[in-house]
Amino acid sequence: MIGGLIKTGFAVALATVLGACGFQPLYGEHPGGARTDAELAQIQVLSIDHGRTGHDVYNALIDRLSPNGEPAEPDYHLRIDLRETREGVAIERDASITRYNYLLTARYSLVDTRSGNIVHEGQSRSIASYNVVDSQFATLIAQRDAEERAATELSEDIKLRLAIFFDRQLSSGASI
Questions:
Q1: Tens of pLDDT along 27-76?
Q2: 128 Cβ partners below 8 Å, 6+ apart?
Q3: DSSP percent split of the chain into helix, strand, coil, nearest 5
Q4: In what order do the strands lie in the sheet with 97-112?
Q5: Which fold has domain 36-172?
Q6: Is the dihedral of CA 48, 62, 70, 164 positive or negative?
Q7: 3-state secondary structure of 102
Q8: Which residues of 49-81 are buried (b: 16+ CB within 10 A; e: fewer)?
């Protein structure tokens, strides 16, 4: 009973402090009823030509930006250019590499479908590591897992950057 009162009091105090500092949730409602997540749902991700990794990033972005399905008439197109590199980070005395860092970099641009203008662009990157072991199959699986982790992390970062862009636009009242 007392623990519940303490938790409730803490929650009320926290809400009061956060409300006083101007805190606004990233995905909350803005003046006029606009919502950041509604803007994100109006993005059509264009096909990413980069093999399996491009396909992984594409699928992860669709899942994150428009979980209810792609928009029939999108307001924006998202173009992504991927680049991947592998760097040996653990090198044995015989010059064999036993650990790699996999770096996935994306340059992206958000294009307004009505005007054709780029309204936002940026760069995002993700790093995942994997070990090289005696089994070629195990190494291949570890490498593939690192690529999938990097693609997922990259898509999360791009979504966050786009959400911040829309949040700033909606908060300032500027047209996008």
A1: 566 566 567 888 899 999 999 988 999 999 999 999 999 888 888 899 99
A2: 101, 102, 104, 145, 146, 147, 149, 150, 153
A3: 45, 30, 25
A4: 43-45, 76-91, 97-112, 118-131
A5: Double Stranded RNA Binding Domain (3.30.160)
A6: negative
A7: strand
A8: ebeebbebbbebbbebbbeeeeeeebbbbbebe
Q: With contact defined as beta carbons under 8 Å apart, do 100 and 127 qualify?
A: no
Question: Which amino acid belongs to residue 94?
Answer: D
Model confidence at 102: pLDDT above 70: yes
**Could you give the C-alpha distances from 44 to 53, 86, 124, 134, in angstroms and in order?**
19, 30, 18, 43
64 within 8 A of 159, measured Cβ to Cβ: yes
| pTM: predicted TM-score of the whole model, two decimal places | 0.79
- Over the Cα atoms of the chain, what is R_g? 21
- The DSSP annotation for 23-78 comes to ---TTSBPGGG-BHHHHHTTEEEPP--SHHHHHHHHHHHHHHH-TT---SS-SEEE
